């Protein structure tokens, strides 16, 4: 449960950072970002694997770059589903999804290295 909450907080923070970096991604409240990160996590868990499987031939032909489109579509869909989070265009969503991945990877790297240091001190 603790790991889930940490991942949820990291995703929320990543979306917050990206909303400030990318013109075209807007939010009205922190609560809407929290909901958006939860919805994005659920979509990534349930729908993304199906989309990746269905688009596998196209992904292979484009040497994996079509994954960015799939991630952008999911990010765009979150903007359409969650009231208070707005994504202006698909291209904005693709850039937003790429940056959310980078920021969340970085934040996960930081938190995991801190956890590892705490375990080593014991």
Characterise this structure.
The protein has 122 residues and is mostly helical. The protein has one domain (21-116). The chain has helices spanning 2-21, 30-46, 48-54, 56-61, 66-81, 90-121, and strands spanning 25-27, 85-87. A two-stranded antiparallel sheet has the order 1-2. Helix 1 (2-21) packs across helix 6 (90-121), helix 2 (30-46) packs across helix 5 (66-81) and helix 5 (66-81) crosses helix 6. The mean pLDDT is 91.
Offer a few descriptive terms.
mainly alpha, 6 helices, 122 residues, two-stranded antiparallel ribbon
Concise account of the structure shown:
The chain is mostly helical and 122 residues long. The protein has helices at 2-21, 30-46, 48-54, 56-61, 66-81, 90-121; strands spanning 25-27, 85-87. The protein has one domain (21-116).
């Amino acid at each position: 449960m603790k790991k889930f909450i940490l991942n949820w907080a990291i995703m929320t923070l990543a979306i917050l950072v990206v909303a400030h970096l990318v013109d075209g991604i807007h939010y009205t409240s922190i609560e809407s970002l929290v909901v958006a990160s939860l919805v994005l996590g659920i979509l990534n868990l349930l729908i993304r694997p199906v989309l990746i499987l269905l688009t596998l031939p196209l992904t292979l032909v484009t040497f994996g770059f079509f994954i960015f489109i799939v991630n952008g579509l999911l990010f765009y869909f979150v903007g359409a589903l969650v009231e208070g989070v707005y994504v202006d265009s698909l291209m904005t969503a693709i850039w937003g999804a790429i940056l959310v991945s980078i920021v969340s990877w970085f934040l996960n790297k930081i938190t995991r290295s801190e956890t590892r240091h705490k375990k080593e001190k014991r």
